[in-house]
Write a structure and sequence with these properties.
CATH superfamily: Formyl transferase, N-terminal domain
Radius of gyration: 17 Å
Number of helices: 6
Oligomer: single chain
Number of strands: 9
Order of helices and strands: EHEEEHEHEHEHEEH
Largest sheet: 7 strands, mixed
Length: 211
């Protein structure tokens, strides 16, 4: 059985963590450290940490992946598959090489790469948005796409809400990464979506693995 780790921080990643934990054993959850929040600057745990503790999952919050103790911790866990959702760290090459790393990106790649993809889909007048489950590669959102879940962009009467908000668990389920961290037979052989790049975020460059 594959040893799975989940890496995420904000509330948008929580439904994916819950869906993953309902189907698989999650060995470790990584989130950003607790930060001061609100007018009182009270220290507050990120939503993913709160959800992981509710689920009884072990939580780790390294300040940086450049620290030798972070590498020692990760290697001690012997992780086979890493699922990353809005984690907020640049993951080092040694970490990516140690397992099968997958990122759930909130856009229909390669249409919008980089930061704020839902915002850019709305501003760009797109009729639909969604999420893409992609293998993490050294480039910016440049790995091969395993699965996608599409949603039309709709608006409620009081406030806009892109319908991609609940698409994360759907794309994760469609990916169905096998016990060794590889795509199922029917989805193998897809080339890197980076060969069909979309416009991406106008202020972001290439060559980083930001998850």
């Amino acid at each position: 059985m594959a040893r799975i780790a989940f890496l995420g921080t904000p509330a948008v990643a929580v439904p994916v963590l819950r869906a993953l934990a309902s189907q698989h054993r999650v060995e470790a959850v990584f989130a950003n450290p607790d930060r001061p929040q609100g007018r009182g600057r009270k220290l507050e745990a990120p939503p993913v940490k709160q959800a992981a503790l509710e689920l009884g999952l072990p939580v780790y919050q390294p300040e940086s992946w450049k620290l030798p103790e972070t590498r020692a911790l990760w290697e001690s866990l012997d992780i086979d598959v890493a699922i990353v959702v809005a984690y907020g760290h640049i993951l080092p090459t040694w970490m990516l090489d140690s397992c099968s790393p997958w990122n759930l990106h909130f856009s229909l790649l390669p249409r919008w790469r980089g930061a704020a993809p839902v915002n850019h889909a709305i501003l760009g007048g797109d009729a639909e948005t969604g999420v893409s489950l992609m293998r993490i590669a050294p480039g910016l959102d440049a790995g091969p796409v395993l699965a996608v879940a599409r949603r039309p962009i709709g608006f409620h009467a009081e406030r806009p809400r892109p319908a991609s908000a609940g698409a994360g668990p759907s794309a994760l389920a469609r990916g169905r990464i096998g016990s060794g961290g590889h795509p199922p037979q029917g989805l193998r052989g897809r080339g890197p979506q980076a060969l069909r790049r979309g416009p991406g975020h106008p202020s972001l460059g290439q060559g980083r693995s930001l998850a």
